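Appendix C: a fully annotated inverse folding record. The material below is reproduced so that readers can follow the format used throughout the book. The structure is listed first as tokens, followed by the designed sequence.
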């Protein structure tokens, strides 16, 4: 008896390459509230930022980027004070280069995966994965103290497919 199976396409496999950096910028909410933000990574299609102002999924924001000016984006996911955002339109390569140049020296090598790293299928949502990884590395604070969790063994979802004989 044959059982058919398929893998769903991973969003991570098709997303634009991310550039890890530490860039301070100004962010503005749709209501006009301005706040300083720290951009942790940037691509032509989106960014990961830390912001002291709570943002909701789907909220429209503006971020002041070098060589691009105030750039519109929408919040895709939120985890504490970390927010994943998608730009309304892709930003030009000049803006990516300018942001990279304005980031402190050495910031680019932090937590960057090698370009040849395989993308493994996972049932874990990106926001949940980021939150888990932040906890494991002691980067998430609860009541002012880092939350540390025992290091888990990475797991890979396996799919068995029976072949017709």
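Designed amino acids, in order:
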């Amino acid at each position: 008896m044959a059982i058919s199976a398929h893998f769903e396409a991973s969003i991570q496999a098709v997303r634009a390459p991310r550039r890890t950096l530490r860039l301070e910028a100004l962010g503005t909410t749709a209501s006009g509230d301005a706040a300083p933000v720290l951009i942790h990574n940037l691509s032509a299609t989106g960014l990961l930022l830390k912001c002291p102002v709570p943002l909701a999924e789907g909220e429209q924001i503006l971020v002041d980027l070098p060589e691009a000016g105030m750039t519109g984006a929408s919040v895709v996911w939120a985890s504490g004070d970390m927010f994943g955002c998608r730009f309304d339109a892709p930003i030009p390569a000049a803006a990516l280069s300018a942001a990279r140049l304005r980031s402190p020296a050495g910031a680019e090598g932090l937590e960057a995966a090698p370009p040849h790293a395989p993308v493994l299928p996972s049932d874990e949502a990106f926001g949940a994965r980021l939150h888990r990884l932040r906890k494991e590395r002691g980067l998430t604070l609860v009541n002012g103290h880092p939350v540390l969790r025992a290091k888990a063994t990475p797991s890979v979802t396996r799919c068995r497919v029976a072949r017709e004989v």
